[in-house]
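Entry for the shared binder. Reason: the reviewer on the internal report wants the predicted structure included alongside the sequence.
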Amino acid sequence: MENLSTSKWKESFKKINSHQIIDVRTPLEWANGTIDGAIKIDFNQQHDFIKFIEKLEKSNNYYVYCKSGVRSWYACQMMEQLGLSTYNLKNGITQWDEPLTKS
């Protein structure tokens, strides 16, 4: 797992073709907007989250974020245990400097 600043996180996924962005916040938080193209899976719903990550392709790179970077750090740790390559958005979406997509 790499714990990256906003600029390094964006720079990294723009360089890599096989990547997926994962938003691990709650549905209430998603209502405030998400990063374009992000898959939404609530980390707090552990059973669903584990089932979700068990189905992910090991050949992809996963860019994970939450509100402040804590839940996504834990999510990355769990994903790494399954052999997935992860990149945590260090300070979460609160530091995001681009427009968010409203659902």
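Summary line for the report: Strands lie at 2-4, 19-23, 39-40, 61-65, 85-89.
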